[in-house]
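Researcher: Sequence recovery benchmark, item below. Answer with residues only.
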């Protein structure tokens, strides 16, 4: 049985048909502020905290799950925030179609699916090709934050980043178990309460790096489908 898609009528939700390629984010937000992206916003707990702390920045929160987008919109409305918009989108599709070169001042990726089985790890979002592609969309000096509760994923990303020209580590270590001032999502707090650590990585794009198309990875099969055909839920 096909699950019925819940209609999202929130003014903070952006439907596919509202976007041009590339999108005019200044018009969508009604303000000319720096633009940051959260990939995998879940139910919006992290994003609401972050956006409230940084009213000078516009935030784009994306997730492939319809219910998560709906709950995120409700949290934004309850918080009275005007600097967040929500899309139901897959990250690689969004970047390829709707984000211009060096348009992002920051990217936040919190606890993405770790695909824990060894035979499935090639499905992880954050790999070398994706990290290189983010350099194309981050502005010089743009920030990259990654967190995971899965230690193997933390080691993988921490090993990849130093070998990619254009990133600078903002921490004294490859990753840390506490990042002061960084909002904790409900998912993170659940693991911390159980005594299971969350691993944080923070890098910045080199101020001197100018992005060109050589940084872009070839799109993976299936990721350029329209998100209306993506997973329901």
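Model:
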């Amino acid at each position: 049985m096909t699950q019925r898609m819940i209609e999202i009528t929130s003014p903070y939700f952006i439907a596919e048909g509202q976007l041009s390629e590339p999108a005019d984010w200044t018009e969508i937000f009604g303000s000319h502020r720096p633009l940051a992206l959260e990939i995998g916003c879940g139910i919006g707990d992290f994003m609401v905290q972050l956006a409230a702390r940084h009213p000078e920045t516009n935030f784009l929160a994306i997730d492939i799950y319809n219910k998560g987008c709906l709950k995120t919109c409700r949290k934004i409305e309850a918080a009275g925030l005007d600097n967040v918009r929500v899309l139901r989108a897959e990250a690689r599709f969004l970047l390829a179609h709707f984000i211009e070169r060096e348009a992002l001042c920051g990217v936040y990726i919190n606890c993405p699916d770790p695909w824990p089985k060894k035979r499935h790890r090639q499905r992880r979002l954050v790999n070398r090709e994706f990290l290189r592609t983010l350099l194309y969309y981050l502005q010089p000096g743009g920030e990259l934050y990654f967190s995971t509760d899965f230690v193997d994923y933390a080691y993988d990303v921490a090993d990849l980043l130093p070998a990619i020209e254009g990133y600078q580590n903002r921490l004294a270590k490859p990753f840390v178990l506490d990042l002061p001032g960084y909002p904790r999502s409900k998912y993170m707090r659940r693991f911390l309460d159980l005594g299971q650590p969350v691993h944080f990585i923070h890098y910045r794009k080199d101020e001197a790096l100018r992005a060109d198309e050589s940084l872009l990875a070839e799109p993976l099969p299936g990721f350029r489908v329209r998100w209306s055909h993506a997973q329901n839920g």
